[in-house]
Amino acid sequence: QAAAAGGRAALRACGVHNVCRLLSRRAHGFYARDAGVAHRKNLGLLRKIMCQESTKFKNVWTTHSASPIAYERGRIYMDNYQCCITSIAQQPRLIYQKSKCAKSEKIEDALLLECPLGELLPSPSDYKASLIVLTVQNWLLRLSADSGEVLEKVYLAGSCCKFFRYLSWDTPQEVMIVKSAQNKLPAAARQAGVHQTVLFYLAVFQVLPLSFIGMLEINKKIFGNSVTDVAVSNGILIVMYSMGLVRLYNFKAILEQFMEQPFDLGQEFNWNGQVGIVGKYPFGLPCNIKITDTPPLLFEASSLENAFQIGGYPWHYIITPNKKKHKGVFHICSLKDNALAKNGIQDMKCCSLEPDWIYFHPDMSGRIIHVGPNLIKVLKLKEVKNHADQMEIAEDFTIVANRENCVNNSVTVTASGRVVKKRFTLLDDDPEQETFKIVDYEDELDLLSTVAVTQIGADGRAHLDFHCNEHGILLKSIPLKESWDVTYSHEVYFDKDLVLHIEQKPNRRFSCYVYQMVCARDDD
């Protein structure tokens, strides 16, 4: 009551009588004693400095490797996570280098784990960033992000499963899913008439402190014979089928309904005739969640290649009609009643080798980003005039590739006056034309970043552009110094004052280029 009275007094003192206005003013940093105000101001200053014409991005470090290179929150990982380099310093420097691990200790997947705010944790090490890694021998390890030291280790695979391969978040930084590879019988076993009904295993963990929630199997007898993949996200179990069908189930309800017995890590157990310790070798984890009946279906949709996304406000989903001729056509429909939104069919009619792609904007604005070879559309959902229960898709803004010097005439006239007709036209993503390859969002600076590439002969040139996330206005363009081959795989990370480009060449050759922000002096 005292806190509520204080809040009302603050509202009266600042002359604000509307909660929405109060929250808006807080977001813009009107109240100096409000948590996060200084941080928001600093990020606002950083954005202004970064977008100044005099500010440059300098290539300060380049390295090459025969193994994959990964980037996580200011740290560059090499040599299968045995080597860690900080990218925050003026020049990247080594944090730790561990001895080369055996093939049996190879890391299959990793997630960065960061300390939650305002929570009491059992160990001092829990308050520092750590790395959760999954090894080829089914060990789940929590490593110190500063030293690589093993803080915790859990053995996953008991008698039920031998091939855990993937890590993902159900709820980011709270609930983690460890997924097995799909169980497939050898050809000899299939010919002998052996039947395999379990397709996947999912182990569920709460993190910080690391605790075991349960393990379940995805079985053909429950979910059907044509299951090709499963995923868990935001409390939803997503099951995908070979014919393009996607089904959604309440994952939390499944855990509660079918949990046979809860177990804690380190607990002694007697399970199905086996005696051991939970999470210790050789017993691993018990499969203590047995789905005995098909769970209630929340939603299902049919989409080409199982492409299915949910977002927006009110909730909508994006699918592609489940026929090959519709590839590149996207339908935006209401999750409530499956009604197609007005202007809800989005089709760029691209003639390109690589398809366009679409997704809900990660800034939680409910907008949609549709990326084609030479055009980026940012779309928004809004109510149809005089029809409050119907939504329409409207264009918020567009970003267009710079193709001013591109000439693609199908008919030309020679000096002698002879008319020559071309037998072909250029593709929309022809390498000699500027083409969008990457679109990303920097949440702390509220900037939309794009990578556009033009390749002439063997030499490709790319530039990273920063756009105002609200209106799409171009604020800054950064040329990347290294050549960009469009046939290679590329990743570009924009993290506050850092730009990092990871390139994968043929024969498993990897390169990493680091750019740092430099504020040039007037005499430079």
Automatic annotation (TrEMBL):
Record field: transmembrane: 198-218, 230-249
GO CC annotations, alphabetized: Cul4-RING E3 ubiquitin ligase complex
Signal sequence coordinates: none
Transmembrane among keywords: yes
Pfam families to which the protein is assigned, alphabetical: DCAF17 (PF15802)
GO biological process: protein ubiquitination
Keywords (A to Z) from UniProt: Membrane, Transmembrane, Transmembrane helix
InterPro entries, A to Z: DCAF17
Official protein name in the record: DCA17 factor
Gene this protein is translated from: Dcaf17
